[in-house]
Amino acid sequence: MSEPAIELRHVVRTYRRGASPVPVLKDVDLALAPGEMVALLGPSGSGKSTLLHLAGLLEPPDGGEVLLGGEACGHLDDGRRSALRRSSLGFVYQFHHLLPEFSALENVMIPQRLAGTAKAEARDRAETLLRSLGLGERLDHRPARMSGGEQQRVAIARAIANRPRVLLADEPTGNLDHSTAETVFEALVALARDSGVAALVATHNVELARRMDRIVTLEDGRIVPV
């Protein structure tokens, strides 16, 4: 059996409201195999975004561990966690967060250049990804000239550009109408499958969730049986 692409072992996260502790994640165990797509369901406030933040090494757990390819990473220093985010993790959010002053092509090149990829190689990779997502006519367009669905597809290409081990998506279609959400979701799945990346996708859309390999549900900070 292959090593999980990412694994959360007995992860705990607690915030504070004044002097009072607020438990958000309570002994969460979750593992994704390489290439597996997992939907993360749960009501608002159940801890989905916090789980993604910990899986994405954006903050450390208060207890337990986050492992990438078997390597314990959750408690590394900020510099090492930042390096791992660049090399091994891709992120897609509900809002695309594209840089408005740059074209679609440049937005997808930027993370590659920050990771040390040569300019010509980064350009070729960005163009290939954007064309595969049906954005060949939008390469030189800035975000303001693109629709919401087009901007989110650029964000997906940007997330995959550095060939991450794991893709984390937080309500990637939550800000889109039904038809556009379908298009973006299909693009996300197709690109993730083609890339062989493990993907954890938080969503409220049960219909879309059912198209993934597996569904896990988070309630009151715990993974519960489906």
TrEMBL record:
GO terms for biological process: lipoprotein localization to outer membrane; protein localization to outer membrane. The keyword Metal-binding does not apply. Residues 6-226 form the ABC transporter domain. Gene3D superfamilies: P-loop containing nucleotide triphosphate hydrolases (3.40.50.300). InterPro entries: AAA+_ATPase, ABC_transporter-like_ATP-bd, ABC_transporter-like_CS, ABC_transpr_LolD-like, MacB-like_ATP-bd, P-loop_NTPase. The keyword Cell membrane applies. It comes from the Bacteria. It holds the Pfam family ABC_tran. One of its GO terms (cellular component) is membrane protein complex. Its EC number is 3.6.3.-. One of its GO terms (molecular function) is ATP binding. Keywords: ATP-binding, Cell inner membrane, Cell membrane, Hydrolase, Lipoprotein, Membrane, Nucleotide-binding, Transport. Belongs to the ABC transporter superfamily. Macrolide exporter (TC 3.A.1.122) family. This is Lipoprotein-releasing system ATP-binding protein LolD. The gene is lolD.
